[in-house]
Amino acid sequence: DARVTQTPRHKVTEMGQEVTMRCQPILGHNTVFWYRQTMMQGLELLAYFRNRAPLDDSGMPKDRFSAEMPDATLATLKIQPSEPRDSAVYFCASGLVGHTEAFFGQGTRLTVV
Amino acid sequence: EDQVTQSPEALRLQEGESSSLNCSYTVSGLRGLFWYRQDPGKGPEFLFTLYSAGEEKEKERLKATLTKKESFLHITAPKPEDSATYLCAVQTEYNFNKFYFGSGTKLNVKP
Which pLDDT band, with edges at 50, 70 and 90, does A29 fall under? Predict the structure, then answer.
């Protein structure tokens, strides 16, 4: 059963700490998206990778957020330092270039206190 | 400005009571419109992609339709297990990277 795997599922951290979220895309998928979901803003695109190269990270606060794909099986999203306003559910999704649908992971629920 | 608006925000139905959810959009050059279902505590699950006005897609009790300005998700004789938040998203011709999501319709089907 192919699916996108995200870890951790839940994270509570103190303001100022570094947070790292991980995503394993579906094997063979060559596009990866990071989204953030809040009640107020809904789903917002943070970053987009194609063949491990970052193509669009315009939705991401550059001063504290960074996204990477060290290899084809791992995508990471880091927040340093974290702030209470970063509290949200962060989703990773993967897909294939030329196909339009994206498959989402279960999300990481981040709470910054 | 590209925008996606979903209505209603919430919908309560009795089991078997058919209805429709609306997704209206204003984008410059639509490449595709997507419907997703999201259950509490889970990620959105892909349902349909529609590409051109007049197109329809069906899956079990769900049917999605598309016009030049909006899409409808028709739910026929819903069951309690259809309760979820339904999200629509649009992809534009000039930026394949971005999917503009609506805020969703939370559907509650009572037995």
Answer: very high
